[in-house]
Amino acid sequence: MRIFLREILFCILVLTRLASSTDDDDFLFHGFRDAKNLSLNGAAEITQDGLLKLTNTTVRLKGHAFHTFPLRFHGSRGGGNTTVVSSFSTSFVFAIVPMYSQLGGHGITFAVSPSKDLSWSQPVQFLGLFNVTDVGSSSNHMFAVELDTIQNTEFGDIDENHVGIDVNSLSSVNSSTAGYYGSAGGGGFKNLSLISGDPMRLWIEFDGALSVDLSDVVSESAYVGFSASTGRATSDHYILGWSFRLNGEAREIDPSKLPSLPPRGPKKIPKLLTIGLPLILSAFVLAVVAGLGFAIHRKMKFAEVFEDWELKYGMHRFSYKELYGATHGFRDGGLLGVGGFGRVYKGELPASKTAIAVKRVSHDSRQGMQEFVAEIASIGQLRHRHLVRLLGYCRREGELLLVYDYMPNGSLDKLLFGGPSLSWKQRFVIIKGVASGLLYLHEEWGQVVLHRDVKPSNVLLDGEMNARLGDFGLARLYDHGTDPETTTHVVGTFGYLAPELTMTRKASTATDVFALGVFLLEVACGRRPIAPIKESETEQILVDWVLQHWMRGTIVETVDASLGGDVVVEEIELVLKLGLLCSHQKANGRPTMRQTGGEDSST
User: Fold this and answer.
1) pTM: predicted TM-score of the whole model, two decimal places
2) What is the DSSP string of 416-427?
3) Distance between CA atoms of residues 453 and 434, nearest Å
4) What is the spatial distance between Cα 274 and Cα 270, in angstroms, rounded to a whole number?
5) Is 312 marked as a binding-site residue?
6) C-alpha dihedral (154, 156, 161, 162), degrees to nearest 10
7) Could you give all domains of the chain from N- to C-terminal order, each with its CATH number?
8) Residue 198 pLDDT
9) Secondary structure (3-state) at 262
């Protein structure tokens, strides 16, 4: 059967090509039935039809397939002593077939890795390349091109359907929404769904002869191959064919020799799939601008953006130079954490010696800057003892810096999972504080404030272990007595999202209450919303697990074992049952914040 493919031309630093050196440096797979020199790990397998299947539709899965032998990527320029990364050319035909037509995860990467053993990596948003502790480390020596089908705010993903270039991290140095440019008669940029289930061809060319220096990133000897992963959303990730050449141009893949994808549902595979369309998904350029003069660098370093309309909001504005000095240049040593949309740094205002936390937020181009500043200014007027106070802001090109009170005891999740064990008394006080803060947002301020991301990592603890709800990066405001607007994207964190959000795309006070219910169970049980209840068990949803115990009359057995007997039974039962009520599957089955008793945080 002849297969016609969409082609994705992915050009990276293309220059002249050199001659290939060995057979290991030049290989071509039309299917993988009799493939040699291919190492598989994780869920990766070769099907009877000769497809390389990296993952199936099992949740939280990862798969790897690498060329068995390492390739020598370092060479010298002009016969001298300067080390450069050798040029390479590769193309491969892939298909991502999601379990559900509009929801697939998490994607495929082509990787140049110092090792073919990535067993320590994690699935889900880490794509089988990194884990939570090493992502972003320069010691990874990892270069990858990602085909990402889930938007993850932790890494600043632009959307849920994009291609990105990754260097030691999943925060892409460059990325673009998946799409292509039509042929001469078609014109224009057209969207392309990576999870369409159709075969597509990606072509990557890199030439290390440019002045861009990747010699510190790519190891002298490295492996080439693929990784893929799934999360709560799953996909079959296939590679149908692969061509690679080091120091030369990869050989052409013949679509007629490729294996066929398995049929999807009742549909038969069409006899003809599109082929030969000169589609360009994106043209990416990796460039390092060297030799910028010190004077220009100094001038741009502290540049800010000022506009007259900002004056009407009356919000205190810090200078960038002031915040740069307060944080000692935003050094990694002062990094408090990475949250939705940005990094948070500790600082100290030199004049008042006030400790502050500064969050650097990349501005969302889909929303007008004036509207965004207006909303932040409104949030800056919130005053409640259980909310983190916004002190002011600074504005630069494409970036906002938000200045908050510093919370010395950090975020609650670090104490719940891995830190010193919290007593039940401390947990109960924290729970009441968060409920009180959320009641204020919903019912006691001039407008309704939807937080949209209530979870332990967004609950900060002051010097006396009082809870402060923070991180209003996803918050939305609307007038009392009106309905919130429907959004184009579902935002928040898996495990805390109310069931109706995926259908209505409309956040409400009820969706915040659902997240609060999960939060209550998490604090009482000492377990994450989605995790194995025991090491030997498969992944389970915390709400379902507690509900099962409640139905058996053993709900108290779900309490965090680290508490021992240090609990007040009446209080723990109240919290667990309230958590179940707040996380009711139907929005109209949940209480309001007033009905939860959130106004009484002192008893």
Assistant:
1) 0.51
2) HTTSSPPPHHHH
3) 13
4) 10
5) no
6) -130
7) 6-257 (2.60.120.200), 294-405 (3.30.200.20), 416-589 (1.10.510.10)
8) 92
9) coil
